Amino acid sequence: MQQPQRVPRLIAGTFVFLVLYEWLFLTVTFFAPGAIGPDYHGVGTDWMVFHQAGRAILEGDFASLYDGDAFTARLNQDYRAFLDGPLDYRPWVNPPWFALLMAPLAALPFRLSWLAGQVLQIALLAWTMRRLAPDAARPGLLAVLLGPVVALNALCGQTALFACALALIALSDGARRPVIAGIALALLSYKVQFVPVVGLVLVLRGQWRALGWAAAGGALLLALSIAVMGSEPWVDWFREILAGLTGEGSWNDAGRRWGNSTYAGLVALGAGTDAASLVQNLVTALSLVLAGIVARQSMAERQRLAALLLLILLAAPYFAAYDSIFAVTALWLVWHDGKGLAPANLAQWAVPLLIWMIPLLSPAALNPLGALTPVYPALALYGVWFGRHGLAGAGSRD
After folding, report:
1. Exposure string (b/e) for 186-222, b if CB count within 10 Å is 16 or more?
2. What is the average per-residue pLDDT within 317-329?
3. Can you tell me the distance from the alpha carbon of 262 to that of 313, in angstroms, rounded to the nearest whole number?
4. What is the mean pLDDT of residues 86-99?
């Protein structure tokens, strides 16, 4: 019987240091933003965006939802008690229906809402991971859920863990639980950049019932949001997204180029926005082709899921450091038991270590190593797909 491989002491010590640093970073930012690491102006500044959008639903005030300047001014006014300085341009860029989902959490005071949002995400991702690998050792699960990316997600007040859990549910339950998978895909559309790979996989695997439920769920979300908010927010949202994809608009300057996608990395390295957009589109197309191959190829299911999580990141025209939870979870899927595709020597630990460090190397605009972020999941994809141990230890076949 193949024995689990021990993590080298140097790697284990580095992992522990990174975990302690990122959680210390979060803790210190509560009372002294900028004392350790970059100045985020406070904890949960992105959650302020979600919280304010939910309040817009509760107050019936949708006029400035997609007016980025007015929305940012409102944030700086309403959340100034939690900030050490004014936020730069911070618009609402999610589809209108997601504001409806935020409304119940927006009824809570800000800090309590932020805490509830993070706890619920961690619980959902933990539940999803346990379902996919019930034999997984708890230390491996805790390593993901207490890792630097989870601390960064909490520090920013983001929802990357929610998106990762939804993607896993949609990809793994399409055949057995099409209703759940379809609803998960419909909800994942709040981060629309992650939908193409998941949708393509369901199509190629002929999981039409799941796709039908996804369409029904999406139609219901659209209808509810129009009934509550009218159609104008949808027009504004489409306009904002299209401008960002073409490298134009305020959100591109304040958001997309501050991410970690191929586009952001190339712009950070000095490429023009047109050239960067072209290369990003090529990378997205290639990632979709590879996802199609993975969907149809015979391989262990956990290995397939890991490859698809990595391709979701690579295909996305925009992703940020907290979205590296997709890559961290992918690696956990194929070597949570210390066997199979787990690194066999010190050199092979370089890729997981770099993925673990993405929160500290980001954003691309400020760190040359952050500009190389898309290379790390690409290398991990190669290891998952062509690992020297093949399918061993990666889970059962379809």
Report:
1. bbbbbbbbbbbbbbbbbeeeebebbbebbeebbeebb
2. 94
3. 10
4. 91
